Amino acid sequence: MEYDEEGTFSIWIMDTFVHILSSSDSKSMIQMFNVSKTYIGEVKVEALKDINLHIKRGEFIFLVGPSGAGKSTLTRLLIREELPTKGQIMVDDRSLLRMREREIPYYRRKIGFIFQDFRLLMERTIYENVAFAMEAIELPANEIRERVPAVLEMVGLEDKINSYPHQLSGGQQQRVCIARAVVNDPLLIIADEPTGNLDPDNSWEVMNILHAINKRGTTVITATHDREMVNRMKKRVIALCDGCIVRDEERGEY
Amino acid sequence: MKLSSMQYAIRDALRSMKRNAIMTIASIATVAVSLLILGSAWLLVLNSEHLTGVMESELEINAYLKQDVTREDALNLRRELEAVDGVAEVVFVAKEDGLKGLQERFGEDTSIIDALGESNPLPDMYSIKAGVAENVPKIAEEVATVSQVETVRYGQGMVEKLLALTRWLRTAGVVLVIAIGLAAIFLIATTIRLTVFARRKAIGIMKLVGATNWYIRWPFFLEGMFIGLVGAGMAIFLLHFFYNQLVQNVVLTLNFLPILQEETLIYNVYKYLFFIGTFLGAVGSAISLRRFLKV
């Protein structure tokens, strides 16, 4: 925590101010106000510099930029794994800075996460992998039994329910990962290079599923290097470079 | 924590124990050994205390009379002994009665008595009880000055030695148990650390989907507690077996030795061992979780 005792009052003032600003627009999903993140190690790294960002509920966002541009830092801030060095972040009209440690797990239940490397549990079946996300937040067993097959059907894997991840193709594994991310019905999905390890056909299938999820009202943020995909989807594109937003276009290109 | 979550936690703990079978067995064995030592020391101390108590309650001064004192003189001595300050009770034990008492104490093992044949080496004796235990040395001194008395014996030195032995057993036991207990905790912590490492992917996913810290921690705690519990179970089983053997042997061959057979007291020791085992396991897990599970 970079803020010291004397800083807490100014945070409070800023929170109040931000709250007045944000409550005028209840459709906000994410708001960032002058967010900076500096890592102090052997060398000082300014990963994000004075970012201002507003993402509405139900938007589909591509986050693009070269490696080291700050995409990962941005996602780490959004899942409240780290706190910004400066600035304020509101997600679903709640300040991430004022969130208590024990509230973090409950906050994360609003977010679904999709990884480039899938991160499936190899010794568990597809069904168990998806059910795992529901077990972890202690949902009742009958709810799990009903919802897991439904979600697997949505991603087109209803016939792979008892397979193990290694028996599936990369594209199928990524669909399992998507199923796991949406099974708890999140408000926001953050996908970190979801098509990074996939061939074009599978990439399209994955993107279409994400698009379908977005159509039902879930906000989707996808960090990607896939130029062709971004250009064809015609969605909002936010380009990061050296920790700054260098471009933010509706229906943009890579 | 919900019941279904507890089921998952137990399932995960058992899976981890199976995966790290060798480490798990080593940890269980260490817990078992440390608790076995603790239990043995504990039972020894209890017995030693018991023995001290028995000896203290039986503490009496035996004044053996000279062989040439006639029976009449011996009986007349009673009044003189009763007059000594602090004496509560005086009992005359004739040499024939003394021999009978000896026979009773040895029970069926008659070979020693038989070896005496018809002769009786025992002298007449007065058994003197003091009102207060502290007066025993003073009374003994005065009784010794009576001309018909050959020697005076009382168990004072024995009691002191026993008390010293009890103290020593207690300290040695505690030191040993602390050393081995620490080793047990260390091994459990290492085992849990391996589990944390093996399950780091699942832990990462749990954190991201919003599992509470305690949901994540429980399986590891359970694993540690299982190790402690099973170790304690083994220690108790072995201790019970060996102690029963010991009791049987003592009753058969050295039955004048008052070995403790009170079940509630012994079961109490077992109960504490059980709790200590579980506690060791929980502490081991806690140390490992603090260091390696950043949740």
Structural description of this entry:
The complex is a heterodimer of chains A (254) and B (295). In chain A, 36% of the residues lie in helices and 26% in strands. Chain A has 254 residues and is α/β, with parallel strands linked by helices. In chain A, the strands form 2 sheets. Chain A has a 6-stranded mixed beta sheet with strand order 6-7-8-3-9-10, with helices on both faces. In chain A, helix 6 runs parallel beside helix 7. The longest helix of chain A has 17 residues, at 7-23. Chain B is of the alpha+beta class and 295 residues long. Chain B folds into 2 domains: 3-55 and 159-292, no CATH class; 60-154, Alpha-Beta Plaits (2-Layer Sandwich). Chain B is built from 10 helices and 4 strands; from the N terminus they run H-H-E-H-E-H-H-E-H-E-H-H-H-H. Chain B has a 4-stranded antiparallel beta sheet with strand order 2-3-1-4. The longest helix of chain B is centred in the middle third of the chain and has 43 residues, at 156-198. The chains are: A alpha/beta (254), B alpha+beta (295). Chains A and B meet through helix 3 and helix 4 of A and helix 1 and helix 8 of B.
Write the layout of secondary structure elements.
The complex is a heterodimer of chains A (254) and B (295).
Chain A: H1 7-23, E1 28-40, E2 44-56, E3 60-64, H2 71-78, E4 86-91, E5 94-95, H3 104-108, E6 111-114, H4 126-136, H5 141-154, H6 170-182, E7 188-192, H7 200-215, E8 219-223, H8 227-233, E9 236-241, E10 244-249
Parallel strand pairs in A: 3-8, 3-9, 6-7, 7-8
Antiparallel strand pairs in A: 1-2, 1-4, 4-5, 9-10
Chain B: H1 3-19, H2 21-57, E1 61-65, H3 71-82, E2 87-93, H4 95-106, H5 111-116, E3 125-130, H6 136-144, E4 149-153, H7 156-198, H8 200-209, H9 213-253, H10 263-292
